[in-house]
């Protein structure tokens, strides 16, 4: 089944995956902008992004053309990322950064809500534990 249709379908699928990877990279970049990770966290984040993109590319290749790696595979990925970078990225970046800011504010508010019971019951922890064994 080595037809032109199979190659064309694989090329379009991988170009679409390149667009998705470009979007995920912009989201990762926005999260890094607000998080300000250390060098080690940056290296780990880059490693996980590369492993995620590798796993997705491998799965897509297995589904679309039985895992054959051809020259147009890399061309399709780069072309898809370039299409995203030059067309949709400038319009979507402000919304991605706003979404990351909103998620950060929501996580902080959730942390404050979850910390409130601790702040209320922390002063009473000695009373809740009971008397110490060696004490009066």
Report the principal-axis shape: elongated
* Beta-strand percent range: under 5%
SSE string: HHHH
Counting DSSP H or I runs of 4 or more residues, the number of helices is 4
- What percent of residues adopt helix (DSSP H or I)? over 70%
Number of domains: 1
Total beta-strand segments: 0
> Which regions have little confidence, pLDDT < 50, spanning 5+ residues?
none
Radius of gyration of CA atoms, rounded to a whole number: 24 Å
Which structural class fits the helix and strand makeup? mainly alpha
Mean pLDDT: 88
Terminal Cα span: 86 Å
Largest beta-sheet characterization: none
Produce a short descriptive summary.
The chain is mainly α.
Describe this structure in words.
The protein has one domain (4-127). It has 4 helices and no strands. The protein has helices at 4-35, 39-65, 71-121, 125-129. The longest helix is centred in the last third of the chain and has 51 residues, at 71-121. The chain is elongated and about 80 Å long. The model has no long low-confidence stretch (mean pLDDT 88).
Please tag this protein with its features.
136 residues; elongated; mainly alpha; 85% helix; single chain; 0% strand; 4 helices
